[in-house]
């Protein structure tokens, strides 16, 4: 090559089969590392408990509740709890991807692989991308629902691999932090009332949904449900209208007249009851 000639670098193109070989080699190395440095269940429960209970806001984000019909709510561990579990369990890889998307729905697939035990599970989650009138969402809303679907699918995959029995002590520590302190029921009611007013709906819808007629009837369990619903709404597990349905008249046409938001106030409890959850 002469002094005036410049060597041109031509990047090597990696074929699909070569990528598979590289990916397999990387996973094999991770498995070897996992076998060499196995996880400690004691450390997992300690670390995840420390993260989940570092403050009340984080603790509250670890639980969710959503209506399932018949006045009942399904409760469980949230997306935030799954993130904490995944980070602390060790020798675990997880992720999610969109496998199908139309104008009406999006389907995500979550995958979780325990490298130490060689257990791999997947979970699919479907989210609607149309409103209650059947009108398709905007592109931005569809992108948001795709992210929500991925988060839920990954959460479900993680809890398929990590035994829920190992997460129970963490969940108990979260509930103890939220329900076991000395904060008065009256104070918790005030905080719950503030959140309800921010929803922009008639408070009577909330009272009917949790099965009470006045704020003074709300006890610790009701506040626990409200806190879970708050988190589920924030994470996209449910909507305000699903959690607190509109109250209809008997003929199904008119909304039953109810008190205005400013007319509904929390009242002091007549007697001492169990502590509720901070919202």
Q: How would you explain this protein's 3D organization?
A:
The protein has 279 residues and is α+β, with helices and mostly antiparallel strands. The chain contains 10 helices and 5 strands; from the N terminus they run αααββαβββαααααα. It has a 3-stranded antiparallel sheet with strand order 3-4-5. Strands 1-2 form a two-stranded antiparallel sheet. α2 runs parallel beside α6 (164-179), α4 crosses α5 (139-161) and α7 (185-198) packs parallel to α9 (220-235). The N and C termini lie far apart (74 Å). Residues 256-279 have low confidence and may be disordered.
Summarize the structure.
The protein is an alpha+beta fold. It is built from 10 helices and 5 strands, in the order αααββαβββαααααα. It has a 3-stranded antiparallel β-sheet with strand order 3-4-5. It has a two-stranded antiparallel ribbon with strand order 1-2.
Question: How many strand units?
Answer: 5
Strand order of the largest sheet: 3-4-5
Largest sheet: 3 strands, antiparallel
How confident overall, as mean pLDDT? 80
Total tally of structural domains: 2
Low-confidence stretches: 256-279
- Give the topology string: H per helix, E per strand: HHHEEHEEEHHHHHH
Number of helices: 10
> Measured on Cα atoms, how large is the radius of gyration?
24 Å
Shape: flat
**Sheet/helix structural class:** alpha+beta
**Quaternary organisation of the protein chains:** single chain
Estimated helix fraction: 40-55%
Q: End-to-end span in angstroms? A: 74 Å
- Strand proportion: 15-25%
